[in-house]
Amino acid sequence: MLLTKKSEYALLSLISIAKSTEPMNVDVLSKELNISKSFLAKIMQNLAKHEIVVSHRGVNGGFALKKSYDQITILEITTAAEEKIPSVFECSPSVNDCPSQVGMLCTIWPLLNNLQLKINGFLEDLTLKDIAS
Prior knowledge:
Elements: H1 5-19, H2 26-33, H3 37-49, E1 53-56, E2 62-65, H4 74-82, H5 109-125, H6 128-132
Antiparallel strand pairs: 1-2
Helix pairs in contact: 1-4, 2-3
């Protein structure tokens, strides 16, 4: 599946953070977006691990964008949220690494690979700013 709830919640959270002048904590985000606090906390940890957000501790702590929102691509966000590059099909980018072990015989692999490359390119060209506006 291309994008799951993890990606959706990551995008919604990052839009809220981008629009805020102060760091936002998980409590505020989960209430604002009606998302499970524990699920959102895991997503935010992944975003921090991939250096999309930075975590601030303390009373006024929370998460803030690590760089400008026009420099954060949707592919970066979805890859961090999903913990892998989102794919349309379970095909491998390499015909030799086919999960079904029939890559050399597969006649649709070139089409699926081309589609995936186009989707990756689209998500790489689209930034958080593009969807936050």
